[in-house]
Amino acid sequence: MGAASKVIHIILRVSEVICSVIVLGLVARFLHLVSQAGVSADGRIVYAVVTASISTLFALVFIVPFNYAHLAFPMDAILFVMWIVVFGLLTSRTGSSMCNASWYWNYWGYYWGGWWRVPDLTVWDKGYDGCASWRAVLAFSFLVAIAFLVSAILGAAVVHRYRRKNGPVTAGDISAPIPHSPALGRPKTAQVHDPRAAPSAPANQTINTAVDI
């Protein structure tokens, strides 16, 4: 991993942590308010909490640019898809009407402002409580999705460049013989003594016999 890749990696991870924590904090607060009201939580909001929790943990674990951090790019791609689903599900609740949508008035804004405690509530009393938080959830959900997409592309590019430069590791690379240094010479072959073979005469005795003849 080069120096530029490490810097970009850290910037992306920090951005992912910040965006995920913002979304997690906002939707978790809303779920707390809903639980106080004693009503069931929207499944899309629960899915957003789960996705934000996983993303925060993952980005914190891989925020350090160690050598093999880019190998996690498949998980980056998965989290990108999960965040796009979050953004699509939440956006479909309000559509282009945003804070003027019926779902917002009767659910998000109603429980965010704690208006279930107020008897004889009118539309004019509620106003736009929680509109800024709802817009923030949508905005940061989209931003964190883009951050994970860029992380996945960067990781895949780094891994592809490494494999193209060094080549894949094959079984032949592991089983290949280890070359010997010329300075050390070839390793000596161990001599195995066969007990059935006749004992060889000493070298000096053989020389003396030849001289006598």
UniProtKB/TrEMBL annotation:
Does the record carry Transmembrane helix as a key word?
yes
Q: How does it sit in the membrane?
A: Multi-pass membrane protein
Entries under PANTHER family matching the protein: INTEGRAL MEMBRANE PROTEIN (AFU_ORTHOLOGUE AFUA_5G08640)
| Transmembrane segments annotated in the record for this chain | 12-33, 45-64, 71-90, 136-159
Domain of life according to the entry:
Eukaryota
Q: Where is the MARVEL domain?
A: 8-154
Give the location in the cell. Membrane
Give me the Gene Ontology terms describing cellular component: membrane
Pfam families under this entry? MARVEL
- What is the name listed in the Swiss-Prot or TrEMBL entry for this protein? MARVEL domain-containing protein
Keyword annotations of the record: Membrane, Transmembrane, Transmembrane helix
